[in-house]
């Protein structure tokens, strides 16, 4: 058994700990023993000399001490002056500011993409320093490594590709995936983000170029959740593309054939899941940017068997729920009043339906969690897609949208019918919340926003949640100028706050999935839960909703600052661990077994989470022959 030596070491460590406790009863009563702080263990390497300098996991550049240079045969291969990591970063930041313009690939190349190139080069040569820069400047660089810039990166990935990062499983690899996973050098992988490139953000089918979204998400797992970067794996499942432009592009790096579908497609994803969980039984797999028709089917297929979740369906829903609960608080009402909110939803894709399902469950739980509660909760939503208002009269209705189809008689009393326009629905319903998950830029037109002025809410909320920026249903300037200064505004991509005059600011709240998915992943990892349950996701959303102070909420802030992302993630992860314990799903992690985990109080769970978050500090490197 390949893990047998590890099991022996863990058992010996546990025995030593128990002996220490018996010898000192005060320790047994007063303290808990937590896992060694993540990132502070010496690192065993099997490389020396130039091989170390060329390996981004281990390279420290000019920060190698003289003793390490001697130990790793580096003396003479670096300039003699040893720099601290802070000085290294200072040099890099000076260069970055200077090179931002020079790195542009012609006048049409935006500065954001130039920044991505410079950061990517750092990532290629020194991973620790890359994450140190990212964490220290997370507000500035999160939009570079993730949305909205990652959309540009994916669109241009074939031209930007320089160094492989991650793994590619294609339709050509059928029958080989079980052996392929052993080509990845890490014996332990904690987190995989996988995409098939079929629906990248709101940009459509980008084929193999969608690997950029997996890389960007995992950068945020490292920066926000402290997942060790040596234990993450971006994955692309390439089953072809239906993007005609890519099929004809000689520079395209993926399979130039139309997408597989049906049973053939499912068989490939099945083979991938079996392979990665065979090699890494405790890995967590996050599905990302799969087209709607597969997002739900694959989630239902795997969620009770594997440690996996779909961020587009479940993460987006959780962040939206946190924002919706915040909007209730902003009206001066308790969160328990959420079931009274009238919500018009624009968009019935995977994100829209995911939000609807979670919102309905949240309302139903507040109403008693019985059949009548679910029916009552359903009546609070009006769903509008590209064909208009969805009612039971709709032909060929999507089964996932069916539970939210309005009864014809019901909408008839409101002067509405099947296919009614978004503006008509808003005008007649007078909703508390207008929620956009349509991926249609500008959908909230002047007519729609004018109709929103008739809302019966004391503080109407407008959520333009589609990504990237160009797909946002409206801008904050449009919302505040047309609907009024008193609204709550949230978006999926970052926008600047709006100056309303007279010293008043219209806050643009970015409802970024980054607030939730890192904590869900980290909490699942540290709890040892074999699945990601609805309760764990709900706990994460409610933790985020409660994070903001009353003063912030009154001022129109329903999401926290990205600069606090490490603390937010710690709190969310702790809430997920606590829920896993309460649902009796927690099996423990490393030396923290399930029984010890159950003894921890709230503060101790947070300390346990904190101690297992990796920080970008150069480790001590110890050479050992293989």
Automatic annotation (TrEMBL):
<feature type="binding site">
    <location>
        <position position="312"/>
    </location>
    <ligand>
        <name>a divalent metal cation</name>
    </ligand>
</feature>
<dbReference type="Pfam" id="PF00390">
    <property type="entry name" value="malic"/>
</dbReference>
<keyword id="KW-0479">Metal-binding</keyword>
<comment type="function">
    <text>Involved in the regulation of sugars and amino acids metabolisms during the night period.</text>
</comment>
<dbReference type="InterPro" id="IPR015884">
    <property type="entry name" value="Malic_enzyme_CS"/>
</dbReference>
<feature type="domain" description="Malic enzyme NAD-binding">
    <location>
        <begin position="313"/>
        <end position="581"/>
    </location>
</feature>
<dbReference type="Pfam" id="PF03949">
    <property type="entry name" value="Malic_M"/>
</dbReference>
<dbReference type="GO" id="GO:0051287">
    <property type="term" value="F:NAD binding"/>
</dbReference>
<feature type="domain" description="Malic enzyme N-terminal">
    <location>
        <begin position="123"/>
        <end position="303"/>
    </location>
</feature>
<dbReference type="GO" id="GO:0004471">
    <property type="term" value="F:malate dehydrogenase (decarboxylating) (NAD+) activity"/>
</dbReference>
<dbReference type="GO" id="GO:0006108">
    <property type="term" value="P:malate metabolic process"/>
</dbReference>
<dbReference type="GO" id="GO:0042803">
    <property type="term" value="F:protein homodimerization activity"/>
</dbReference>
<feature type="binding site">
    <location>
        <position position="288"/>
    </location>
    <ligand>
        <name>a divalent metal cation</name>
    </ligand>
</feature>
<dbReference type="InterPro" id="IPR036291">
    <property type="entry name" value="NAD(P)-bd_dom_sf"/>
</dbReference>
<dbReference type="InterPro" id="IPR001891">
    <property type="entry name" value="Malic_OxRdtase"/>
</dbReference>
<dbReference type="InterPro" id="IPR012301">
    <property type="entry name" value="Malic_N_dom"/>
</dbReference>
<dbReference type="GO" id="GO:0005739">
    <property type="term" value="C:mitochondrion"/>
</dbReference>
<keyword id="KW-0520">NAD</keyword>
<dbReference type="InterPro" id="IPR012302">
    <property type="entry name" value="Malic_NAD-bd"/>
</dbReference>
<feature type="active site" description="Proton acceptor">
    <location>
        <position position="217"/>
    </location>
</feature>
<keyword id="KW-0560">Oxidoreductase</keyword>
<feature type="binding site">
    <location>
        <position position="289"/>
    </location>
    <ligand>
        <name>a divalent metal cation</name>
    </ligand>
</feature>
<feature type="binding site">
    <location>
        <position position="467"/>
    </location>
    <ligand>
        <name>(S)-malate</name>
    </ligand>
</feature>
<feature type="binding site">
    <location>
        <position position="512"/>
    </location>
    <ligand>
        <name>(S)-malate</name>
    </ligand>
</feature>
<dbReference type="GO" id="GO:0046872">
    <property type="term" value="F:metal ion binding"/>
</dbReference>
<keyword id="KW-0496">Mitochondrion</keyword>
<dbReference type="InterPro" id="IPR046346">
    <property type="entry name" value="Aminoacid_DH-like_N_sf"/>
</dbReference>
<protein>
    <recommendedName>
        <fullName>Malic enzyme</fullName>
    </recommendedName>
</protein>
<dbReference type="InterPro" id="IPR037062">
    <property type="entry name" value="Malic_N_dom_sf"/>
</dbReference>
<comment type="similarity">
    <text>Belongs to the malic enzymes family.</text>
</comment>
<feature type="binding site">
    <location>
        <position position="199"/>
    </location>
    <ligand>
        <name>(S)-malate</name>
    </ligand>
</feature>
<keyword id="KW-0809">Transit peptide</keyword>
<feature type="active site" description="Proton donor">
    <location>
        <position position="146"/>
    </location>
</feature>
């Amino acid at each position: 058994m390949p893990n047998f030596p590890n099991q022996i070491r863990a058992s010996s460590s546990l025995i030593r700990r128990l002996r220490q406790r018996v010898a000192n009863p005060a320790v047994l009563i007063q303290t808990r023993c937590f896992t060694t702080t993540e990132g502070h263990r010496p690192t065993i390497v099997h490389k020396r000399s130039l091989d170390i300098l060329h390996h981004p996991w281990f390279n420290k550049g000019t920060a190698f001490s003289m003793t390490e240079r001697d130990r790793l045969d580096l003396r003479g291969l670096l300039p003699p002056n040893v720099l601290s990591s802070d000085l290294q970063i200072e040099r890099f930041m000076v260069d970055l500011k200077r090179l931002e313009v020079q790195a542009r690939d012609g006048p049409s190349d935006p500065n954001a993409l130039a920044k991505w190139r410079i950061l990517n080069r750092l990532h290629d040569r020194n991973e620790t320093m890359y994450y140190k820069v990212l964490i220290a400047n997370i507000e500035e660089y999160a939009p570079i490594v993730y949305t909205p810039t990652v959309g540009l990166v994916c669109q241009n990935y074939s031209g930007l590709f320089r160094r492989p990062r991650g793994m590619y499983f294609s339709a050509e690899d059928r029958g080989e995936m079980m052996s392929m996973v052993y080509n990845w050098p890490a014996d332990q992988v904690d987190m995989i983000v996988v995409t098939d490139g079929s629906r990248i953000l709101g940009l459509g089918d980008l084929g193999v170029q969608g690997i950029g979204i997996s890389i960007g998400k995992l950068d945020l797992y490292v920066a926000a959740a402290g997942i060790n970067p040596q234990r993450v794996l971006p994955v692309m499942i390439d089953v072809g593309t239906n993007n005609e432009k890519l099929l004809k592009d000689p520079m395209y790096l993926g399979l130039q054939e139309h997408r597989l579908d049906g049973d053939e497609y499912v068989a490939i994803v099945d083979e991938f899941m079996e392979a990665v969980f065979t090699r890494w039984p405790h890995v967590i797999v996050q599905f990302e940017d799969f087209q709607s028709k597969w997002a739900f089917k694959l989630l239902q297929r795997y969620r009770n068997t594997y440690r996996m979740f779909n961020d587009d369906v479940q993460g987006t829903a959780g962040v939206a729920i946190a924002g919706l609960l915040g909007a209730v608080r902003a009206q001066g009402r308790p969160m328990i009043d959420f079931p009274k909110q009238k919500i018009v939803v624009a968009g019935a894709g995977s994100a829209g339906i995911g939000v609807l399902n979670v919102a309905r469950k949240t309302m139903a739980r507040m109403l008693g969690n019985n059949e009548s509660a679910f029916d009552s909760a359903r009546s609070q939503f009006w769903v509008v897609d590209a064909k208009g208002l969805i009612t039971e009269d709709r032909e060929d209705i999507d089964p996932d949208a069916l539970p939210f189809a309005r009864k014809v008689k019901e909408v008839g009393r409101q002067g509405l019918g099947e296919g009614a326009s978004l503006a008509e629905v808003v005008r007649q319903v007078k909703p508390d919340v207008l929620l956009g998950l349509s991926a249609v830029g500008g959908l909230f037109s002047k007519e729609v926003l004018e109709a929103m002025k008739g809302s019966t809410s004391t503080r109407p909320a407008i959520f333009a949640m589609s990504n990237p920026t160009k797909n946002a249903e409206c801008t904050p300037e449009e919302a505040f100028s047309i609907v009024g200064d008193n609204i709550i505004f949230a978006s999926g991509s970052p926008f600047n706050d709006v100056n309303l005059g007279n010293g008043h600011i219209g806050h643009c709240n970015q409802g970024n999935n980054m607030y939730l998915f890192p904590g869900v992943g980290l909490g699942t990892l540290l709890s040892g839960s074999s699945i990601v349950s609805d309760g764990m996701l709900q706990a994460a959303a409610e933790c985020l909703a409660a994070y903001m102070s009353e003063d912030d909420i009154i001022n129109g802030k329903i999401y926290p600052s990205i600069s606090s992302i490490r603390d937010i993630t710690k709190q969310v992860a702790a809430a997920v661990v606590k829920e896993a314990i309460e649902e009796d799903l927690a099996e423990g992690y490393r030396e923290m077994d399930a029984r010890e985990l159950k003894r921890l109080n709230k503060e101790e769970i947070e300390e346990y989470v904190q101690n297992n978050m990796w920080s970008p500090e150069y480790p001590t490197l110890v050479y050992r022959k293989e």
